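> tool_call: predict_assembly(chains=two)
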Amino acid sequence: MPETHPILQTVDLTKAFGMVRAADRITVQIAQGELVGIVGANGSGKTTFLNLVTGYLTPDHGRILIMGQDSTGLPPRLVTRLGLARSFQIPQLYTSLSVLENVLLALAAQARKSTGFWKPLYRRQWLEEGMEILARFGLTPYASRSVAELPEGGRKLLDVGLSFALQPRVLLMDEPTSGVSIEEKFQVMDTLVGVLQQSHMTTIFVEHDMDVVQRYSQRVLVFDNGEVVADGAPNTVLAAPEVRRAVLGRE
Amino acid sequence: MAQRFPLAGLLAAGLFVIAPFVVPGWVLFLLTVALAKFMVVLAVALFLRGGLVTFGHALFYAVGAYTAGFGSKWFGAREAVLLVPVGVLLGALVAALLGLFMARYRGVFFSMLNLALSMILYAILLKFYWVTGGTDGISVRTPTLLGFVPPRDALRLLYYYFTLVIAGAVTYAVHRFLASPLGFFLKALADNEIRIEYSGASVQRVLYSTYVLSGALGGLAGVLVAFAVGHIVPEYAFWLQSGEFVFIALLGGYSSVPGPLIGAIAFEFIRTYANKYAPYAWQMTLGIIMLLIILLQPGGLWAMYEGVASRFRRRAEGVWHA
C-alpha cells in the first residue's frame, strides 16, 4: 500500500535547547493536498518544527518521514530533494542577482545542473519556465530588476516562488505575511494560496496572525511550549478558549 | 553589455594581434608575462566574486612553473605544447585533492588555509634543493613549439602569440563559466548559502568545482610564465606572490573577465616604471595605488572604463544630461 503514506509524518519529534523543550513529542500526519496552518505564540516552537522537518536542526528523538521515506538526520539539501521545500520568515534571496536570475538558479538546482559550467544559465527552457513562475506570483514587471529593488511584499512572494520552482511535493512557509503591511497581507496570501492550490501543492504555513490562519487554512495545528495542543478545522480549533489563551496569551 | 562585447572584444583582440609590430621588444615580453599572469588572477577573481579571498593561489602557479622546470631539468622535455597541458592537469589535480578539504572553509579560514598550503609547498621547494634547486631555482630551457626550435629573434614573437591564443581561449571559457549555472551559483554564494542548500544544490560542490578550475588556471599561468621568464625560484609559491594576484584582481576589477587582464597589464607596467624611476619606493607606489583604487574606484580599472564607456554611449544616444 505505497500510496497511502502520508506526504509528511513526524513521530515523537523532540528537540531541547538547554532546559527549553522547543519540540515536545510532536506527532502529526499531513495528507496529500492539505492546506495546514500552524499557529502559536512567540517561542511556542513553530519555527523549530520547520527547522527540524527540513533538516536544519537534528531532533533529539523521533522520526520524520516524507512520503514514507525516513528523512531524519538528512541535511536540508537532501530533504529538499525528497520533495520538501520551504520559504523563510526573512526572505532568503540572492540579493546581487536579478529577480529572474533568482528563479533561474532554482530551476537549475531542480534540474540538478547546479555545477554545469559550460551551457548558459539563460537557456530557453528555463527562461520560459522562469517567466511563467514570475507571472503566477505577479512578479513579471520585476523580472530583470535587482532583488534589492523589490518591495517587501514582492520579496516574500519571490521567496516562496523560489521554493515553488523546485516543484516540491510539500511546501512549508514560515510566516509568509510577516513584515508585510496590513493592506498587503491578504493580497500576498491570496496570491500564494491561489498559486499553490491551483497546482495542488500540499502546503503548511506558520503564522501568528489568527485572522490569516482562520481565512486561509483548512486545518490548524496549535503549538504551545513545543507541543501540539490542538489539531482540527480552523473554525472549531480557533474558537476554543484554551487555544486563544495559548496563542494570544489572553482570553 | 552582451551586444557591446563582440565589438569591444574584437577591437581588443585586434590590438593584441598587431601589438608586436607596434611596441618594442621589452613591452612584448611584458605583455606575454601579463597575459600569462592574467589567468591565475582570473582564478583569484572567481573567488572574489564568491566573496572569498585566497592568499594561496601562488601554490598552483608554482605547480605550473615547476612543471616546466622539472620537465626541463629532469625529463629533458621542453615542448610547450606538451608541458602546458601537463601544467594545467597537475594544477587541477592538486586542486582536486586540496579542494576536498578547502571546500569546507569560508572567510578568514579559507584565506589563511590557502596561504598555509602554499607556504608548505614553498618550504618543500626550498629544502629539497637536490630536486628543486633550492633558492637557486631552476633554469627553464627555451621551449619548442611542436618540435620546432624557433630562432632567437622569432622566439619572443612566437611565444607571445602562443600565450595570446591560450589567453583568448581562457577568456572565452571563463566567459562561458560566468554565464553558466555554476558561475551564477558562485556569485550567489556570497549572497546566501542557506538558499543554495535549500534549493537542493550543494554549496560545497560549487566551491569544489571552482577550486579545481582555479587550480587549472593557476597551473596554466605558472607554466607559461616559466617559459617566458626562463628561470624559476621557490618565491613563485611564496605568499607575497599570492598577495600580488589579489592586488592585481582588485586593481583591474574582479567582477568581469577583462578586469584581471587590464589589471595584469597595468601591474607589469607599474612594476617596470616604479623599478626604473623609484626603485626604493616600489612598495609605497603599490600602496598608494591600492589606496586610490579602493577609495576612488572600488570596481577597479575595468569599472573606470565601463563608467566612461556608458557615459559616451548615453551621450551618443542623446539622453545624456550633464
